[in-house]
């Protein structure tokens, strides 16, 4: 007697994290349903187009089915989840840029907040026991991390207080700060995912991402720090550094390690949990440090200009405290170093350039 494979629904399946999750679970025998409508190309233009990634999944993954659906379509979302009743839902679809959100506030909120609610309610109605993983963002903390004492080093800013040495933990305040409209819409989604877990007892979690990255990222200037930086270097573009002397720090986590944690959560879910998912201090770098690493692998010098105006709500220094993740899921840890991540992105960008 054969049993049907478990099924997973992945929104934003043509994006960086969505596609990585699709590959990860497909390779483990799951039936994968991807939901994407290439909205990133509408938000960011041709540079953000993800159809190439959709085609890659459709041609290379066994048991993958693409669904052309906008998560703002409430009836469409309910019909799909009612029909599929997936064993797990991973929600990565979003309008991901805090800069872009100010120009398209309704599209931003309807996608990030209302789209998430559409998915949650459909899950509650048709598969309430299926784990629901939401890709949130560290922007839910607004610019509050900038109130922490910092010290300036030669190539980066870093936290000055010993109590902040591990980075930002999940109990860090989100109030009384500037979030950007993107951060506010993601806060609404984040709290709603928690509430469906706590109020209805559903197995949900929010993953508040740092810089999520990898070789399959369609990075643009407004979103996708490392991917866009590598693209600028390889293509000989001038990169614009926005404020803070180029010493602003981000922690970078490879999309594969994000998929690994999602797998761990689905195997042992909790209700209404929150995790700060990033590379931690070991995988952190400033823009200046990233220039040096990319140059090392590409062999090309990075040209850049400096603007004194920093981005609204931007973090001066941010890296994730990973201790809660490691405590709840001790079999998980970072497996791809920052150097290896950058090497992969450079190699993929060079390969794509030769094809184009």
Give structural notes.
- With 356 residues, the chain is α/β, with parallel strands linked by helices.
- It has a single domain, classed as Rossmann fold (3-Layer(aba) Sandwich), CATH 3.40.50.720.
- The protein has 12 helices and 14 strands.
- It has a 7-stranded parallel β-sheet, sandwiched between helices.
- Helix 6 runs parallel beside helix 7 and helix 8 crosses helix 12.
- It is globular.
Key structural traits:
single chain, 356 residues, alpha/beta, Rossmann fold, 7-stranded parallel sheet, 3-stranded mixed sheet, 12 helices, 14 strands, 17% strand, globular
Helix content: 40-55%
| CATH class assignment | Alpha Beta
Compute the separation of the termini in Å: 48 Å
Which descriptor suits the 3D outline? globular
Class by alpha and beta content: alpha/beta
What is the helix tally? 12
Strand order of the largest sheet: 3-2-1-4-5-8-12
Say how many strands there are.
14
CATH homologous superfamily annotation: NAD(P)-binding Rossmann-like Domain
- How do the helices and strands follow one another from N- to C-terminus? EHEHHEHEHHEEEHEEHEEHEEHEHH
Low-confidence parts lasting 5 or more residues at pLDDT below 50? Answer: none
Main β-sheet, in a few words? 7 strands, parallel
CATH architecture: 3-Layer(aba) Sandwich
Rg on CA atoms, Å: 19 Å
**Average predicted confidence as pLDDT:** 94
Instruction: Determine the strand fraction and express it as a percent band.
Output: 15-25%
CATH fold naming: Rossmann fold
